[in-house]
Amino acid sequence: MKKIIAKLSLITVLTIASTALLAQGPPEPPEDPGEGGGPVGGNAPIGSGLAILLTLGAAYGGRKVYQYWKDQKEELED
Fold first, then answer.
1. Complete DSSP assignment for 2-62
2. Which of 5, 26, 35, 73 could form a disulfide with 30 if both were Cys (CB 3.0 to 4.6 A apart)?
3. Best CA proximity match to 1, nearest among 13, 17, 9
4. Contacts of 36 (CB under 8 A, 6+ apart)
5. pLDDT tens digits, one per residue of 5-38
């Protein structure tokens, strides 16, 4: 019973503490549009990360298809 109460109190404390962890707001836009500066939303590159995720997803799917094909081949031989 003590373990359950300890776990529930820990979950409650972590849930309440997480409400204070807010993301940082966007930067202020420049006063003069001719000043330049970066875009308002920031300029984080996502192209290479997207390519990595797609490559890993294709490799995972290929492995699953190969395992399925291999299992079906073994079942037909038996």
1. HHHHHHHHHHHHHHHHHTT-PPPPPPPPPSSGGG----TT-----HHHHHHHHHHHHHHHH
2. 35
3. 9
4. 30
5. 999 999 999 888 877 776 677 677 667 666 665 5
